[in-house]
């Protein structure tokens, strides 16, 4: 069974990944902060295969920049691992194609979730894909 903390932080990460623009990101970030969540979001686009490491790196950098995690090996690794898990879920649709969309990151206490929401495709023939990863770290 999924714990309540895991479910809530996953919902927040998905909401951040689905945000439309920077203004909405700021509004959501503020709202979620009042509820005790730390959040970040970052846009990404490019060839999927060559971008996996860059996407992971951008997620870790955004999480540190926004104060979601500290610059501690275990917390950086948690975000990197959750991002890789999320990417592995969209890999079957994305291999060999371009992706573009947003990465949402959320933390509440010892729960960290990373959600990716990407358009996947070529030219205007896009599909959509969502992936979600979760890790636990010591608060």
UniProtKB/TrEMBL annotation:
Give the record's family classification. Answer: Belongs to the HutP family.
Q: What is the lineage of its organism?
A: Bacteria, Bacillati, Bacillota, Clostridia, Eubacteriales
* Name this protein carries in UniProt: Hut operon positive regulatory protein
UniProt keywords, alphabetically: Activator, RNA-binding, Transcription, Transcription regulation
- Does this UniProt record's set of keywords contain Transcription? yes
- Give the quaternary structure: Homohexamer.
Q: Which InterPro entries match?
A: Regulatory_HutP (IPR015111), Regulatory_HutP_sf (IPR036482)
GO MF term (any one):
RNA binding
Please give the function described in this protein's UniProt entry: Antiterminator that binds to cis-acting regulatory sequences on the mRNA in the presence of histidine, thereby suppressing transcription termination and activating the hut operon for histidine utilization.
State the CDD domains in the record: HutP
């Amino acid at each position: 069974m999924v714990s309540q903390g895991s479910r809530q932080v996953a919902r927040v990460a998905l909401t951040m990944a689905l945000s439309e623009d920077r203004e909405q990101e700021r509004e959501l970030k503020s709202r979620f902060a009042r509820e005790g969540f730390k959040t970040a979001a970052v846009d990404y686009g490019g060839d999927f295969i060559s971008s996996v490491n860059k996407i992971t790196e951008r997620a870790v950098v955004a999480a540190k920049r926004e104060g979601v995690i500290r610059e501690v090996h275990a917390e950086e690794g948690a975000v990197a691992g959750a991002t890789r898990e999320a990417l592995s879920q969209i890999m079957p649709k994305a291999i060999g194609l371009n992706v573009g969309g947003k990465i949402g990151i959320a933390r509440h206490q010892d729960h960290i979730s990373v959600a990716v929401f990407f358009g996947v495709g070529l030219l205007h023939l896009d599909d959509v894909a969502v992936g979600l990863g979760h890790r636990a770290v010591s608060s």
